[in-house]
Every structure is written in structure tokens, then in C-alpha cells.
Amino acid sequence: xxxxxxxxxxxxxxxxxxxxxxxxxxxxxxxxxxxxxxxxxxxxxxxxxxxxxxxxxxxxxxxxxxxxxxxxxxxxxxxxxxxxxxxxxxxxxxxxxxxxxxxxxxxxxxxxxxxxxxxxxxxxxxxxxxxxxxxxxxxxxxxxxxxxxxxxxxxxxxxxxxxxxxxxxxxxxxxxxxxxxxxxxxxxxxxxxxxxxxxxxxxxxxxxxxxxxxxxxxxxxxxxxxxxxxxxxxxxxxxxxxxxxxxxxxxxxxxxxxxxxxxxxxxxxxxxxxxxxxxxxxxxxxxxxxxxxxxxxxxxxxxxxxxxxxxxxxxxxxxxxxxxxxxxxxxxxxxxxxxxxxxxxxxxxxxxxxxxxxxxxxxxxxxxxxxxxxxxxxxxxxxxxxxxxxxxxxxxxxxxxxxxxxxxxxxxxxxxxxxxxxxxxxxxxx
Length: 430
Ligand SMILES: *Cc1c(COP(=O)(O)O)cnc(C)c1O
Known about the structure:
binds pyridoxal-5'-phosphate; Aspartate Aminotransferase, domain 2
């Protein structure tokens, strides 16, 4: 199969392969990648693209990294997979131990899952089982922020933004959750009573039905790439305690340094009851996610009825994925990722600043290694995507958003190429 000509490959792809959020037969361009090293993707036609996406937040150390490769090859020689029911193995135990050490001190228990969406399902089930075990079975619903994104499975979808998440399509099967106004206090600004009023009202009136508040701290990702105040999180944390509602942080996108802190909750200096991790957990090598929780939640579930946590994926704690996670954490320890993220932030700020003057641009914002250009109108992917590729960069806009989140190892020259390509293509839109 590796010998398929490029044309044949694309034709077969169009005929048989469904891509994320796409229509079969749409004729949207799809680019065959044959290899990737560092920050460069090599296409089948020999062109090289500088990666501005880190494969959706995940490839923080770049591609084909010798340390990552070596760790996976070594683990492969021991075992690629073994079931996790009744068995355990060093990569899972070591990774759990390191995640517990890196995250807020109260989080002591790790449940491994196979994707971010599943980690969110697990978090929501933990919250419901917690209240069930405490004799409050009416607490089965969730409060969440508008403009959130938590994944594509049904429970995760129920807490995604109700408009962008297309809740009408699945209205009969989605649990109706409590949507709170998205925080209007921007990152670095204080959170006033008015900013938090919607959350206060929801928790005051609905808390007997609410198991947890689930949100993405500091950065709302796929639901709008919005950055908001750490002060809001502090207040939300206090409100949850006051109203007997658990707090779930979904750090699947923000975790592992992307915002400038190892975890975004560090900006607010608070710990959630449940924390979801994924994406960059394995440095983009394999699919793995984790749901962490406190001893209180874990013990309450385990000692109450039915006495078990009701979840257990077939590929739970896959040893290869755990080995990739360990190697990725090792690389974070061994590399000056904070300096890299700060350097990327400065470069994105300077490189994207000219966009502020363009008519088509509503907002330009940068936090950590995330640069966002929000336009007034949605882009036409079919025409825009080939222009980025022709400019030698891989950027995948959605809706009104063109955004960059390159691997932490990207150098200044490549960053300049990336921001210049984006700036000149947006200039042409105006
Ligand atoms: C990507 C993402 C998810 C879903 O993760 P998958 O691995 O795609 O299932 C959930 N929450 C957030 C914040 C994400 O960015």
C-alpha cells in the first residue's frame, strides 16, 4: 500500500475515508503526509510544511523525536499491550505517579482512558457516582460554560457549547445541562460580580441537580479559542464549595505547558476535584488520556454503592502509550519549555500584531504558545487551506478563527515564516 501513487492515494481517500468533521464527496483538499520530523511535515509531492498546529495541541516536542522513538522501541521489545483488569505494569504505575506529582497535591488517583472525550465521560461518571454514593442521586446534571468544548461522545457533547455543538441535531439523546454565560473578563483582568452573575444564579437555583461544574480553565479551545480571567476560576471554585458542587477542569488542551504554566489551573492557584488530561500527554505519539481525582472522591465512590467505579476500557493504560507519556514528561523536564513557550509568545505577539489593522480582523490574542486571529466572518476552508500549503505552512482554521500553536521546539526563523504566511494571507482577505 505504501507504493500507491499520490493521485491514487487521494482518489481512494476521497472514495472511502471519512475525515474529522467533514462530508464525504465534498472535494475538500486532503494532503498525503509521508513523514514528519521536528516541526516539518513532508508531503507526498516532496513539499515541506512548517507545522503550526502541533497536530491539535499534541506534538509539543515535534515529530520523530529520538528520545520518544527510543522509549517506544524499548517498550515494544517488552510488550505492546496487556489487559489492565487484574494486571498492572511499570509504565502505567510510573506515569500515574508522575502525573500525581506534577498536578495539584490533592489529586492522588489516576484513571487512564483512551481519548480525551472518554476522559471527560469518566470525569462526569465519577461526579455522578460520588453524589450517588453520598445519598444524593438527584445530582446527575452538569453546569458548564458557553463556548466550551469537551469532546464528541454523547456526555461530552452535552456540555459543549449548545450552538456550536449543534445540540438541536441530537436533542432527544443529549442530557440538558445548565449553560452559564462565558466569562467576559479577559485574561489578566479582575472578575467582577457582573462577570460571575450567571454562574452564581445557576448554582444557587439548580445545585440540588448539579453534580459538577465542568470547564476548560483559562483557555476555551475548540469552542472559540477564548482566554479568560484566573480570578473567575477562583470565584467559581469558592462557589462550587459553597453549593456542594464538584469542580471538573478539562485541561486536555491546556495541559503540559501550552499556556505558559504546566497546567492552566496554576494561574488561579486552585485545585479541581477532577482533572482531565489528554492531547500532549504522549507528546502526540499515541492516544492516551487520564482523569485524576482526589482521595475523597475515589474513597467515596469505592466505599459507597455499588462499590465500584463503572468504567474500564479494553485498551486502558496501554503500555506503549504510557511509555510515550513517560518519555514526553522526561523531555519536558530536560528542556527549557517555559523559555520556549515565552519565546513563542513574544514571536506570535510581534508577528501577528500587523493583523490588528486589517478590516477583516476582529481580534488578535496571544497566551503562551497560542496565537489566535478572530475574523469578522467565517473563512472558506476550501480556498484558504491550499493557500497556507502553498506558503509552506500547516495551519487549519475553523469558523472565524485562524490560530497557531506550534511545537515548543520551533525556532525563531520558522516562527517568522509561520506568522508572515498567516499575516499575508489574512491581508489578502481584507
Ligand atoms: C480535544 C479535546 C477534547 C476531546 O479529546 P479527544 O481526544 O479528541 O476525544 C476534550 N476536551 C478538550 C478541552 C479538548 O481540547
